[in-house]
Amino acid sequence: MKEKNIIGNYESLRTLDYDEMNEHLDQLQTFTEQAPIGYTTFHYPIRHFTYGTGENHVILTAGTHSVELITNCFLIHFMEELDQNPNLVDPNLFTLHFIPILNPEGTIILTSALRTVIPRTCTPFYEELTCLQYYMNSRLEDEYALKKDDHGNKLQMQMFRYADANCIDPKHKELRKSVQKLITSLPEGVMITWSSNGVGVDLNANIEHPRYEEEVLKKIPVYHELRLNQISKTTPGPVGCPFRGDAFSLEPENQALLNFYHSLIQTEKVVGSLIYHACGNQIVYLDEKYGISKEEAEYNRKIALAYQEMTKYDVLVQSRPTTMDYILKTKLPGTILIELGDIRSTPLSQFISCIHSVYDHILEDNQKAIIKTIHTMAHTIKR
Length: 383
Known about the structure:
38% of the residues lie in helices and 11% in strands. By secondary structure, the protein is of the alpha/beta class. It has one domain: 3-Layer(aba) Sandwich (Aminopeptidase), CATH 3.40.630.10. It has an eight-stranded mixed beta sheet with strand order 1-2-4-3-5-8-6-7, sandwiched between helices. Helix 2 links the parallel strand 3 and strand 4. The radius of gyration is 20 Å and the shape is globular.
């Protein structure tokens, strides 16, 4: 791969907003759009696409956390590559299930904020510079948080200080109202950190008996770390809160996802699933200490190592049973979580090419890894 620098050639914007994502998905020719797996609180469809008709079914999801924008963009990019080059994956051997926007509400919020600083009309070079500035500001704020115990205004959020609920298109009326209520007492620019759905619940934390359950019920704030240390993880808002109200309830996005996994596993030969997050250059799988069989643990590890072969990402064993990703791993052997990119500070740092060609490696290496991994699944699974 040829290294790029800050004066390299950038042909088009890399970041996609919610409407652009759907425009790209609408243009796919070799995919079949299925019925949505479900709908969000504010009635946005969770779109579901399939490629191929083979007996080996694989699920690929992105965007659990809307701030991890690279996951949506990568998976849509891979779908387009597959659409243009059907020989990449044998459609007679596989049926691939794509859920590229698992969190539509959060994606609308996050990308509405994004477009206040990186409009569709800007140049790709300007986009790269803005992503780089966001990354550098975030690194500085991490240092200030550690060295100075600083809880003040953050440089990377100040870049987006004019992004408030009004930057969300009026067609999203109910979502705008919800966001306005949630951000009333939060710092300016906080929408660019948005990880949750439209009612302020972190979908990955939304499980029974989550972390900080007592603090949530007692309304005790537990603040995030480093550059997000102004934001409570126990109050509905941009990041971390596991449920709303005075008792646990499963968010509609998660209910839809669990129902989809359950239904597909019951009716088809589902050989695994790939769950995309950012960032860390990591692959996480489930082993025996969480109650699965030795054979299932060995299969999970084999899948993780197959993915690692193409990406060189670190392979880790699941360390905490308090996420929706963990629940999905217990339901389906061959499920791994992939953290895209070795450069921190979502949502923009993973779109940078001028540092280690991060963006290019994410797109190219992970495309190869998907192809390698699903073939390993198909050739290994016996059920």
